[in-house]
Amino acid sequence: MWSPPQIPFGNCNQYGSSVSPQPLLRQELRPLLEFILLARFRRVKVAGPLVYTSGNCFTTMYIVVACADKRPYVGPGAKHVCEILYGSASPSCYCVKEGALLTMAAIVLCLDVGFAMGNAAPGEESPLEQAKKVMTKFLQRQVFAESKDEVAVVLFGTDGTRNDLASGDQYQNITVHRLLMLPDFDLLEDIQNVIQPGSEQADFLDAIIVCMDLLQKETIGKKYEKRHIELFTDLSSPVSEDQLEIIIANLKKTGILLQFFLPFPVDADDGGGGTSASAHSHVHRNSFARKGITEQQKEGIHVVKKLMHTLDEEGGLEEIYTFRESLERLSMFKKMERRPVAWPCQLTIGSNLSIRIVAYKSLTEEKVKKTWTVVDAKTLRKDDVQKETVYCLNDDDETEIQKDDTIQGFRYGSDIVPFSKVDEEQMKYKTEAKCFSVLGFSRSCQIRRQYYMGNQVLKVFAAKDDENAAVAFSALIHALAELKVVAIVRYAFDRRCNPQIGVAFPYIKDAYECLIYVQLPYMEDLRQYMFSSLKNNKKYIPTEDQLSAIDSLIDSMNLVYEDDDGESFEDLFKPSKIPNPHFQRLYQCLQHKAFYPNEPLPPIEPHLLEMLEMPCVVKERCQAPLEKVKALFPLKDVGKKKEDKTAQDIFKDNNEDGPNPKKPKAEDEESGFSIISIAEGNVTSVGSVNPTKDFQILVRQKNADFREVSQQLTNRIDQFLENKGSQYYMKGINCIKVFREEAIKLSKVQCFNDFLQALKSKVEDKALADFWEIVMQDRISLITKDEAEGSLVTSEEAEKFLAPKEKQNETPPATDEGGDVDDLLDMM
């Protein structure tokens, strides 16, 4: 009789180790494992859903049923349980259709260079310049994204003719400027400097036919996912509709997409809906000024509308854009395209169950791929610069040695422990192979969000073309989701990598289902910080009006756009749609330097600065609630109190018991926060009110880490020095004295001496001579070996440490010509 393997179940702590198993959870998951194993190794039929009881718990498992004539649920549009569609809008790394690589498109940029395109009103850009800007922005995105799309350029309205269809008076003044190839900086330079307005005109429908012919001939034998024609014109040239029906039929037959880019919106002549029909357009598109257009342009608009509406009755007019709108959309450089790389492995549960899986990176930090290269400043050639690394001994002769005669060293305290390559290989964690092994299961509520770490998120699918794996994996996903549990997983990318502990939780969508893997922290990765609790004070309890004002402010800053009916429409601020400003600025500067190497870099474009700003709609909406908050939470300027620095402040005796009459009241009467008002056990960190007392209490607590507590004290000292006031200087002096006393008592001499030496250099760098003068006056020096056994500092060295440093601009005292150098040193 077959029985499932014994697998540890139960709750798992934050480090991924299994805690005491829970019998109920084991009973709940047992039918799941039996079902998965049967599905993996045998073809079974199940007459109905699995029904089982566990104590008082009655559960019905509605999960994928493996039967001889029924396959698991597959989302719409997918051919396999682990398959989803990959598109340009969803980047990165999912399981793709069989044989699909990165989407590659063939694009023809068709530009009108007729004489009308070069005309412009005073102070305005001509339509040709605007069109060239749009094309330049588009090509820049393609170049920096390293896109595999190929681009061709066709010009119409040129003085000459160069195309395969030209014969007699047909297809004249149309020039194929560049055939299909990857875009580069040469093409960008051509658009900016070479392409100029001509003196002729040409029919844009003839230009479309030339572009279609170019695409048909250039794409023979190649696989392109899409083929586009992007036409830039002002519709001023005469147009003939004789071949319009033929053009429409061929565009539909070949699947070529057509888009128009105009200097004006298509509804400028009749006030119609045009491209602003959708709510999205209403929110985001700019309102263009209605300018007078000619009769020829009105006729061209009519032909364009007829053409696009016939191609697509519902969305055809949405493929007509204005130059201004296109510039706004193309103002962001395109992100680099990434080929999804599969990571095949075996998901194991115990020793008897194994499911073939494949994982893809779903989220990871993007790095700048381009690396800086050192070139010769004059020739700009990389080969003219030779790099050579030389290893020398730290001796007087700087004896050169070979790299093979060196090994790595690990600094351990003040010593260096040598580590050869052999030692490094032996030290590495050895794994047999790549691994994705389930250690156990845990309630999903116990995996807190703050435990997610690592630099990637994986989406795990069943292996392609393996029906048994798909059935078993689907059963596991649905059972995890239904029972609200997650899998704790041991993950190793390959045999050379250190293993990770992570969590895999179910993710079920209409089109696909998978496991999401996120790394969990080890013990050393956690940072535990203790903070003192906030004290309740009736004086600071907010009123109902104040609470209501804050609620109104939060509501007004809602980032979800709502239409007039109050229904949610879309997010106004999507971080996933915001490009990295660092990349955008880098590409902007690289592109500028490529064309203008001797000019300074341009300023940051306004849209880069606005990307991370509050949306304008939200900013306007929250003004009134903000004013109300300001009125209900008034702030009073108390002014800056002038401090008189006296000799008593600098040289007073810090050990005197009597109260200091010059001490500000704020420090004498800290009601509610004095050390007397709180128990010693409640002190969890060195505060700013009474840091010396806090420090003494903390270092005497059990399991106290002296170095950690002293670091808190030194941080407080740094804060006091930043304020640069006599009141804060004296607090810092008291802290240093207490630090010194406790270091001697607890034999932590080196900790204090290191701090004082670092403080001296910090004081010199920050020009705090008056503070160091107090230190010297109070004779606060390094701890000597006469005071504590752990010290290596002599009394002479401690005295020398406090000796004033000779100023560089001081005139040396006069000496006799026959004086000895040693005499001069003695005088100093």
Number of domains: 4
Largest sheet: 7 strands, mixed, barrel
The helical percent reads: 25-40%
Question: How large a portion of the residues is in β-strands, by DSSP E?
Answer: 15-25%
Compute the number of strand runs: 21
Low-confidence stretches: 1-27, 37-102, 268-290, 655-659, 661-681, 808-825
Q: Return Rg in Å.
A: 38 Å
Q: What is the average of the pLDDT values?
A: 75
- Looking at the structure, the CATH topology of the largest domain is Ku70, Chain: A, Domain 2
CATH class of the largest domain: Mainly Beta
- Number of separate helices: 24
- Give the N-terminus to C-terminus distance in angstroms: 97 Å
Backbone shape:
elongated
Tell me the strand order in the biggest sheet: 9-10-16-19-18-17-15
CATH architecture of the largest domain: Beta Barrel
Q: Quickly give the structural class.
A: alpha+beta
